[in-house]
Fold these 3 entries.
Entry 1:
Amino acid sequence: MGDLFNSILKPIEILVAWIMYGFHQVFTTLGLPAAAGITWALSIVGLVIVMRAAMIPLFVRQIKASRKMQMIQPELQKIQKKYKGKSDPESRQAMTQETMELYKKEGTNPLSSCLPILVQSPFFFGLFRVLNGLQDIATEKKDAIGPITKTVAAQAESASIFGAQLSDSFLRANNLSTQIVTVVLIVLMSATTFTTQRQLMTKNMPQSALDSPFAKQQKMLLYIFPIIFAVSGVNFPIGVLLYWFTTNVWSMTQQFYVIRRMPAPGSAAERAYHERLARKGKPIPGTVAATAVADGEGGSAEDAGPQSGQRTQPKSKKRAKKK
């Protein structure tokens, strides 16, 4: 099992190493010191940008899937009430079948909203293994990972930011600086995760969805995830914590933009969006005015012709010829 896991992660490790090394070369060309922690930290940020930019189509799918899951909650509750108290195999199977038919009809399922996390996880583990292996590569206990040779690994392994090595973790720290940087990054990582999830729940969910079991489950995760990050974060190298914090900031910003421009129907974000459009004098989506504009029926005052209020009488062809 371990060999299979390693064989799957090996290509991803090499890809992560090449992306980091490529950004490192760019920054050193721009004049940053090759062995400086800031250069390698920016290389990790560059890795996040490349990876998250490539995942934008998946993020759009996730937003659509999450929105559909929110909107079908009343229908799911009806199915659950229909089979409430029935624990026999036939009823359970019928409930599952009706639920799956609803998912198929709406073109969504609970796993669709997890796609970005599932795709992102191998890169997370790939970076973890690259940073964890720097010392062994530098001391020739481990083979090079792509362009991360002995010399490059020694350089990256000794790189530090605010007095903390990027390859070090809280539990392996031998100085106070590393522990402080680790704690700060864990707090920032937990705070950005909490803010992103809370933003989704408070602004982009209709009231009917907020009262559903799905929303209650999401609310629980809102408080559980920061605790999980706080407990597990002490084992992660600082470079991995920096990666996770950066990807959280990307998610938070991207989600803010999507909620602001494409809010879920019936949500607080949609009401705020309509208020902004009204203040700017723009038609609100779904209204008669918006439909007319979309169909090309709306015209400017200049195109509307005379505005005197007197009806212009039509002229027949014969009368036009006499003239």
Note: The chain has two domains: 2-72+108-272, 73-107.
Entry 2:
Amino acid sequence: MGDVLAIVEQREGKIRGVSSEVVSVAARLAQGLGGAAHAILVGGSGVSAGATEMGRFGAEKILVTEDDALRDYHPQGYAQVVTDAVREGGYGAVVFAATAQGKDLAPRVAALLDVPLASDVTDFRVEDGGIVAVRPIFSGKAFASLTFSASPAMLSIRPNVFQAQESAAGGGVEAFNPEGLDPSAWTVRVGEFQPSGGGSKDVAEASMVVTGGRGMKGPENWGLLEELRDALGEDAALGASRAVIDAGWRPHSEQVGQTGKTVAPKLYFALGISGAIQHLAGMRTSQTIVAVNKDRDAPIFQVADYGIVGDLFEVLPRITEEVRKLKAGD
């Protein structure tokens, strides 16, 4: 069959933004395969309230499993539900997000179905009735084109690489209650969830990102970035380059780049970042890029919409001051 199933993610009962990208990709694949895009949402009681929203992005049908044992992500429970849905629906392809949850769930489902998985996909096409998935290898220095030797084709897409495209479809919600769902038989127990970064905004989901590189000279100067983030407001998050993470200045959850997180905010500040290919791969789709670097030949200026050549420690406080003035005038 040419139908494609998209795996919708939720957190605390709210559908995550990356799910619109997943459903949109599933709709494009289904169109190429001559089928329809469906979606599945798993969660606790009431999670179905926002399910119809996925119809905006091409889902003809949304399957919903509501069970309080599945209110939060559970590896074995979610894998069982999704695997049963794939088998029952006879889908030709299944699309996950390559998020922390998707990177755990997708391999489990692939193993249960005994099929290969193409992970962290950044491009795809339908060719001769089959799917060709493209993913980076060797830290983004090359790309591999993968074909699938078994059905369904399983792939996880890198967040913020594929723009969600509205393509209105039926969006009908149907309850999906697989048989044999027995939480007492699960050997894994989820104790608690602790948000990274002390509960701060996830850099991959923020509409504004303030990212620092080696030009910040040390973790003791990160307060300057925090001041700009706070001036921008609650929709802003902190990011860091790989060199900063490797040096131990910031947590890995803030890394932007090929081996970190891909971001596509409305506004991106690259502060003290030279612009290595590895970093550009993770942020070049940002709508507006502002770069500050003392080296006028830094590669970051080739992708920046606005560039300032100067001393970061003089320029950054002035940017923060101007943002505060603009905010005060709102």
Note: The radius of gyration is 21 Å.
Entry 3:
Amino acid sequence: MTLDDLAEKGLVLLGCGKMGSAMLQGWLANGLPPASVWVIDPKPSDWLRGTGVHLNIELPSNPAIVLVAVKPQMMGEALPSLTAMGNGATLFVSVAAGTPIAAFETILGDKSPIVRAMPNTPAAVARGITAIIGNANATSEQLDLAEMLLRAVGQVVRLEHEGQMDAVTGLSGSGPAYVFHMIECMAKAGEAQGLSPDLAMQLAQATVAGAGALAEAAEEPPAQLRQNVTSPNGTTQAGLEVLMNADTGLPPLMKKTVAAAADRSRELRNG
């Protein structure tokens, strides 16, 4: 299915906060007509009001896709309004963290095609990465459609089974916060070495952003990039000997960090 097909049948966006707005902005920039989009949001932003989409009015009966972008705690209130579209050709895509496919099948009907997606916050600047998994009713064409829509905010990867979503939550879903904290820590460490807070923060932010961009752009893996800037007995090696310590350094700490987030995701999923 192409954007033209989608434009003809219509797209419903349930919830238009930061994530929903980022996606909608990407779709409109890619040529999806505002008249083909229906948005339900209790507190629409001025930006959303100015897009020209259908806002908080009666929905089409059989849209091509319904993208659910409300917060998980609002799900029980919002989903029943979509029940009439279930068990048909409409594809439901959820970017709500922690809500399993089975919960959607219970409300929408077990014949409904459903794709569960886990994006992350860099989607706000079209640099996100989203993992997706479909239920048995989601066709390969529908998975392609979901991927096309989610590419508006960054990269998309496909999972082998839904159980992997907890690990994705722990790594890329929660991961931006780990990186933000690393920036904080690097800046504080720079201050401790005599830099002003503003200068230390600017250096830390640019270093992490630049290294990330280089890691994505380079053909070599990160391990090789690290070695490229590590001169024998030089300054980088001295720092890495602390950071890479197998007992007290980053490797065991990061392993525990991702595991704790993934474990919490499992706890929330299992109630």
Note: The first helix runs from residue 3 to 9.
